[in-house]
Hints:
single chain; 5 helices; mainly alpha
Amino acid sequence: MNLALWIVTGLLTAVFLFSGFGKLFVPREKMATMTDAARWVLDFKPSTLTVIGALEILGAVGLILPALLGIAPILVPLAANGLALIMTGAVIMRIRRGETKAALGDGAYLALTAFVAIGRFALEPFTG
Length: 128
């Protein structure tokens, strides 16, 4: 279980770092033209996208850094919970926009973040 949690945590860290930095540094209009699934960014102000991107980066760092450093590892499942909340909002937004395939993808990330949160809180915590 511990190995599975580490693998999923590593995957989520990479995904949320990439996504977060994209929201911070890629202009909203350019991001919207990249794929059909990225048109949602036009529904939000640039400042909102910046906040979402920053939260994703903080969440990604919180998934891995506390465990690697052994400093406050309780932050790992808390970061996973925060990212699960972000992904819950993403799924709701996709459903409202009628983007079923994208909602399923976001739902998969939601499930993975929930797996890490539950896994590190109850199944395989870092402490005692």
